[in-house]
Design goal:
The protein is an alpha+beta fold. It is built from nine helices and 27 strands. The strands form eight sheets. Strands 1-2-6-3-7-25 form a six-stranded mixed β-sheet.
Amino acid sequence: MSDEQLRKQVDAYVDEVWEDVVEDIRALVQIDSVEDTAAAEPGKPWGPKSYEALAKGLEIADRLGLDAHDCEGYIGYADLPGESETQIATIAHTDIVPTGIGWTVPALDVTRRDGYLLGRGVLDDKGPFVLSLYAAHYFVREVERSGRRLPYTLRCIVGNAEETTMADVDWYLDHFEAPAFLFTPDADFPLICGEKGIFHGRYRTASPVTDASSPLVELDGGTVPNAIPGLAGALVSADVLPEELAAGLEAEAAVDGKVRISSHGIGGHAAFPEGTDNAIGKLVRFLLAENVCGASQRAFLELVETLTRTSDGSALGIDCSDEVFGALTLNAGVVRTLEDGSMSITVDVRYPQSTNAERLIAAFQALAEKCSCVFEAGIAKEPFYMDPSLPAIQTLLATYNEYMGTDKEAFVIGGGTYARHFPRACAFGPHDPSVVDPEWVGIEHGPDEGVSEEVLRRALKIYIVSIGRLMELELA
């Protein structure tokens, strides 16, 4: 079959199944699949809602003719067996970050508006996951029609803990061999061949800092460490407030002579701070400037102010960059007042090859000592890079460029995808930065998360043609 004939056939397929694609995306978006390990049970290690989305994803895969398997609730996969057990695979995830605030449409449903889909997960990553299943379904029908198996087994891996620890993939690789090649539809086109290192940590005060005499009773903001917070709040004594609040802050009466101050920023993904405004930092700078804090609280607030002053880590002296990965980014994402009266804040760093976790830990610990706090290091993942000249990567790039009429090259990002866990992998769409979305379309991890239906339709076509071409390569 010529390329022109293949593309016409793929166009007809996408036209035929598109409404089913949208409804399957809707079925997944309606599940509030935020990880909840506190409610974990046997067979549901990431919590009941995460498992519900995993089960729904496997149900869709089974309906589309794939051989679906639930791996003890940790992860799942669905196969189209080929002539060889060697695998070409996709991996996408059905878990989400919390919906958060600021939505103008229902967060847990799909709203269609002017050619866009809106809802938590339509872009990250339930929509792309459904695309991966329908790309495989195209080949299910081709195998049934021709009676000939594909050269390699096609596997769709169903992730279920991507937004937190990615421990689902750790479990998978402990039990299965890695595919010969894999791509994840959980990022941008044209193709991502590298990802910055990722480091998480948490500060907490060495002892309780709030009591009955504290003017600052409670500080709370953010949802997850890898999201820049768009909202933060503080409960304070009314008699310590100035008459006017800073821009972006508002106050409302609470109980017992207290006032709740709300800080409104611009949220987003921790890896992409440009254009965002950390609501925690805005609130803390106000509290410090107006002295709305006790003496024991000030050191912690000064620490938070340092963390949020810039997004490149320069306030801590950890700013750096390199030619491959660009500049380091730093996000202070979640601040909490704990039950014992102490306070904590998380940090998320995306770093290039010109630094490492040991240097970051040293800088964070130095700040902790200066501000009488304790620093706890969390996950540390080294930068990931694949040679973009590999035939499989060039095949994907060529397919994208043919559809777009461009000559774009692979690039690296600050975000972390499943690709970094596999020996031969990359991230491949479906978001297309060349498409300018209306202002009312939100980004991933933010309110009114949305994606163009045309972008998704084209991505499905690119995935089908790309998989067909990967099947023709010599894979080790």
